[in-house]
């Protein structure tokens, strides 16, 4: 897939205010500071499409980006932002939960995992919730350029072992780097095939 156009549409504070659209949506979510904004900018090759911040937890709304006028990339608030207040974390959780469970044209969720780390409980708990809720998702291990390939592979295997405790069949797994653009083609090919099947 070639990205011909990528434009910001709108930000919504909750499901009710999300824009009506017949287009398939692909949502990106991950633990705060996983490199979500950098990945979105890498995929679209627009360095300022999603705001990259040194402070985790910047995304507080559901952000919609129209891609090629054929599908929508959705940037969801990150989970696990330790410095947010308890009420703020609860609100983020409610926003994300309602979107993931009730958004009719959601095609797939891209769950971003930091490839430098051994499995984090919060990531495993979130993927378990997706499995239990029947929400389609794939795993994307980010920042693959920052560790040796063997270390990345070892962390992925550990994550798969953790998921095996609550999941019979594993989702598709991708690795990527916003810096080197590795994995970009594979992710866009997956989205392209999914769009064609709509």
UniProtKB/TrEMBL annotation:
GO terms for biological process: division septum assembly. One of its GO terms (molecular function) is GTP binding. Gene3D superfamilies: P-loop containing nucleotide triphosphate hydrolases (3.40.50.300). Its cofactor is Mg(2+). It comes from the Bacteria. Necessary for normal cell division and for the maintenance of normal septation. HAMAP family: GTPase_EngB (MF_00321). Belongs to the TRAFAC class TrmE-Era-EngA-EngB-Septin-like GTPase superfamily. EngB GTPase family. This is Probable GTP-binding protein EngB. It comes from Oceaniferula spumae.
